[in-house]
Amino acid sequence: MRGCGRRAGRAARKRRQKSESAVQSVSLCHQLQYVKLMKFLHQRGFTSTLLQPALFTDTGRGLQTLRTIKPGQLLISLPESCLLTTSTVLDSYLGQYIKSWKRRLSPLLALCVFLVCERHQGEASDWLPYINVLPTTYTCPAYFTDDVVTALPACVRRRALEQREAVREIHSSNQDFFRSLQPILNQPVEEVLTYEALRWAWCSVNTRSVFMSRPSNNFLSGQDVYALAPFLDLLNHQPDVQVKASFNDVTRCYEIRSVSGTARFQQAFINYGSHDNQRLLLEYGFVAPGNPHSVVYVDIDLVCDVLRDDMNLNQKIKFLKENSLLQNLTVSSDGPSWRLMTALRLLSMPQTLYHQWKAVLLGQAVCEEREEWSVHTAQTLCQRLLQDTHTALDKITDLLQRCDQSVREQLDVVRSLRQEERCILGRCLEVLQGMMKQPDEPLSCQPDVDTLS
To answer: Which ranges carry the Rubisco LSMT substrate-binding domain (predicted)?
Structure first.
């Protein structure tokens, strides 16, 4: 560090040089699309002397600090006039069509239609400088090909298909409203408000908007919490970063304040929340390396397959469902979750001990034999998940050899998720092996002559 009175040792210098060379950046502020974006925002009252758009070797596009950001310092303050909200839409040429439509639209759909129409207007659009810096495609499941979807873990695969279907449903169920917009379009509406265009807008809003609660109105239906924030939305997510973000009713700006600070010329990050990588992939289309919140989900269908010989399995599953213990069964690098082990302990119980099932759900210990069975079953589940992960990674390797660039980007995200899950499952198996080796303390167990299922 410059100006430091103590000279760093050779090892420290090597570590610093390695760290600095690991992530490199190139400023984007002189590229025409960003020059136009900043001019557009300046005209609306925004100036930024702390951050500039840059391309980073580890995350891609992001915002770089031009000065050291101190803890508690305001990182960015974006005026309300720069935010694209439903108020923007209702005050635009689209407003009269939305307000007079027989069925109230959702805030999300209103924003999506506005984005598509503004992109269609081209140079005539007031928001073109912002639209030109939006991604042209996304790595969200709504974009995934069938081959990419099949490479996902089972529980993610279901939600990915649901996401694709949800976007298709929004497009197909609003055709009448789209046709009503023909007077403001210079091409047939079927060529403008296509499924592909709506998908692009849907992903733009869902992945890039900030949470900003809006007052209800008589023209839109549902929670109005989306605000697209040009320039601010270039900030990337990092799980261990702490920031405070909200709309300031006094300054009428959306503000982000750094909690921990950022060194000069480093990438500034925000935190989307304590999300595991499956959720990040589903909602934002990326995976965060070294995410401390990451887990592997154990699908209940897999549990049922592993325990298919248990004659009382259906009744036990019903009991778990009634007690809300079928969801969020997970393993992490630290081992199986409490929910998973509690569910397995209950599944180890025979029908004759039905009167003890509730007590087990509340944390009552089971006998040593049933505890060992539960740990062994957890091992079996992890091994099955690990086998599925290896199969998926082999399939991804094969697909990468014969796909175009857009599919390659999708596969890269899924591969990152699968590689992380492979590491988590491997560490969890080591923890479970240690649990099997450790001598158990005597556990209270009611005498039972039934054999384990």
So the answer is: 309-425
